[in-house]
Automatic annotation (TrEMBL):
Protein name (database record): ATPase
Gene Ontology MF annotations: 3'-5' exonuclease activity; DNA-directed DNA polymerase activity
GO biological process: DNA-templated DNA replication
Source organism per UniProt: Paenibacillus wynnii
InterPro entries membership: DNA_pol_HolB, DNA_Rep/Repair_Clamp_Loader, P-loop_NTPase
Amino acid sequence: MPFHDILGQENAKRLLQNALRKEAVSHAYLFSGPAGSGQMKTALTFAQAIFCIKSQDDACGECLECRKVEHGNHPDLQLLKPDGASIKIDQIRDLQRAFSYRSGSPNPKVYIIDEADKMTVQAANSLLKFLEEPPAPAVGILIADNSRSLLPTVQSRTQRIPFSPLHPEIMLQALASEGVPAPLARCAVSLTSGLEGCRELLQQNWFAEMRNLMLQLAKESLGKGSSAVATVGQKLFKTGLGDHLDILFSMFHLWFKDMLYFLYQKHESIVFIDQLDFISRHADLRDATEWVAYMDFAAESTKKLRSNANAQLCLEQFLIRLES
């Protein structure tokens, strides 16, 4: 895919295309930024552009070299990702062995290390010398959400290419063009940092169901003699939705924030815009400090979940606090 097909990231694309144009491609790059902001797509396009026989500073997407990358079978491109929870020293050694054979191509070989911040210390140390002095001409691309967790020595041997979160409007337009309903798209965009993350979330069968359940619980908890706690037992933990409580609490956080947005007349920022009629009738039932307190309840509940608290008890306590 050519660079212009990658959404956003104009600065990253400009830096890479300038290097290609000037024939000044570095031996190693560090693509750093939030997950889902296009690092892997950009890395593959950059690899295509390096191999491409038709274009100097882009991927034509049509020549044999570009198509080999597209189909995942280019002999001079190696992709590495964590084996389990980490990237291990044996994986780096295998990469080094693969690069010990010279290619018949005039272009350098390319390797992409996804989630490079998950390298073990031993793996990172093994990579160091290879980064500086590969046995054959090579270009390395390390992708890391949290580049600071990489060894400083690895960071210093790479050229950093920063990636920023995609603007929500760009993501919403892309999802709309793919036929995603606007209410679901707005919710997914607010819960993830990139378009790929949005798509992954939207593909989960439980996502739309969870959104509907959150709205039901949120509305019930505002009423007198609430049945929200009973609803939890019936609908959440008997259907498997209870496995995704972190998303539920994040949705509640957005819902309470929407109430604040309405109070402060920032309607354009409301996520659950399809619920505007309900929000307009209920936002002033609490003052701003109460809505902020509810947001804090949601954040605290998420922390409890991560500390392995009982999920059902955690949610029931949360709902009881809302009703009090």
